[in-house]
Amino acid sequence: MKAAYRQWHEALSTEFFGAEHALRSAVLYVDDEIERQLAEGQGIGTSLAQAVADEFNWSDLERPLFSRVQSEVVQWENDGSKGPPPSLPVLALSVLAATRMVSSGGMLRSNFYGRWTQLFGEQPSGYRANKLKKAFLDVAAMWEQLDTWLDEAGGLYGTSTVSTDDYYWKIGYPISQALIRGSDRQILTRFFATTRLRPGNRNGVSGRELLRRLRVWTAGRDRHLSPRLMHELANAVDAGETLITSLLKRLADDWDGTLHEPEREHRRRALGLRLMVADRGSRLEWLAETVEALPETEVGIPGGRAFRLREEYGGVYDGLETLHPSPQQLAHGVRLEGHALVLEWAPQEVILLRMHPHLGEWVSTEYFEPGEQHWILAADSAVGEVRAMVNALGGRTVRQVPAPVPGWKLFKGVRAVNGSAFARTLDRGGVHAHVLEPQIRQYAELSGGLRIASEYRAGAGVAGHFLRGGAPDLLLPASEAADGRVEVVLDGCTENLRADPRVPFPLCLVPLEEGAHRVGTAESSQVFTLHDGLHEALPPGTGTLGYSCDGTARCELSDAEDPEQAIRGAYTPEGIRLPRTELVRRTVLEAVLIDHYGGVRKVKQQTVPAWMESRLPEDALGPCLEVEVPAGYVWLVYRTAARWSVRPLAAAADIPAPAPSAGDFAWAYAVLSAAERSQDPAWLGYVEAADAIAGRQGA
After folding, report:
1. Which residues of 602-624 are buried (b: 16+ CB within 10 A; e: fewer)?
2. Among 36, 330, 332, 603, whose CB has the most other CB atoms within 10 angstroms?
3. 660 with 648: CB under 8 angstroms?
4. What pLDDT is attached to residue 699?
């Protein structure tokens, strides 16, 4: 490799895959401005295009054009893939070509290869231009290699956002990086927060649903996203997995719940505010959901009042009761900032609300749930369209009343019970039709129904228990088939349904017997049970021993008569195997379970709910907690205030030899944390394997 190429490789490696990028989304965005800044900052006198062109093999027609770079990549792999691959300047140059994809100079916006050959000063129809175009198949392979390397590094150099789709294929890789500028990343973290996405996208929001929400978030307002990204949002098709949906999904899956603020050393957590209509519609309040690991914090209006937030029941903070929502805040938004947390409300003319499962009040939500009851809060400017829209749904009459804030109206009892009318209303569209849009699902789900009880057996895979004749509705995923049909499986019987995925299918129309039923698609299904009624007395199998309870449970176990209030156990037949558990002291600060093939599972200490603490005596809470140990995990590594320790979870003869992969860095870190805490031969074998992984990483 020539000196200029190596300089560019070092500059790009430091800029995009340095230590500060660990566990963050890695986007290799290079445009003309960034190329100039990197060249000036690193003192590189050769352009990126010239540095790459100097490595071309034009002389030997039997060898690939990128054969020199490919040879360096092979050597890099043989040396253990240390640092970013040598192909980085080639990949960065392909992104530079993608950022120049505009309709100008006789080229269409879609002409990637024209911009690619133009970078090297070649004529579009010449021999060299054709060879450059054909050689891009090797560049696509380099992109796939970069994606694999980032994934195998476990986030050490960042998490990959390299994506493509069937339409773009080879050129989709650089285009996926050109869609998201640095400023876009900062704005998208605000979008993730305001749409109340959870870190790591724990709820599994699909890329198509994220695209729908982003279109709503940007509709009618300049969010300062780049023109290229806005063009992709406007022109992305609504069916199938596209480049933009795949990219949004990867960014959401990698989002850690913090704002991208390069000017700040400390990354702040962020979440969207909710609006709550309380006391049967007579009062408005701001509602902030709790953020993990922040039970208490402080936020304030910039240059104004400060509010102390404390975690309360229902997964929400208290402390915002004195901040009354005003017409100005609803119309223009409100932002509360603190050292550790930012809460934001994005302004909107029409607000959809649904009953909160814990608070019993109407709270703003991101999507409409067919079959469920909703309220809609609408500004006076949107009342006419909202009234026509909800009246078109049919069913019971919707009530319109004055809202508890001037200039707004409240629509109560909005519900879609007529599937045909609901579909027609959505298809008719309108400025505010997005309020009635259901969530775009990837998997089948169950909704509604006459529920008797939620599932009480942890890990049993049962969605709930319903009264026979009141089975839940089936929410179908969006169809990818040309005819719009979805293959539904009910208790082993398959049927192709041509149904609107926005409208739930009523399972109550299917005659089902009492007992368990499985329904869904080949990719996802759920189990529910139907019952003819409830037991009037204690259910069969309830234990006769218990703890008498008159407000507070007693500590002594005693015989419990049927009429007596008591906390009872249940009789467990001998055929049932209880899960494997391990005791961990509550003073442990950090604990993980590890297996022999590189798996690490974090042990989380569950907090005792306030309602339980008030009913149990103080000495009922022991010094230890039970941790369920899944099959395959053989060591417990934990840290107290004094030191790390390790504990075997099986007999020495039953602990298999370690077999982690070369990229299991988290596993190696966990083992090495307690490397010297045991001289057990089985443990020393794990330490030796961890040392080998750490040596490769350090090298």
Report:
1. ebeeeeeeeeeeeebeeeeeeee
2. 330
3. no
4. 37
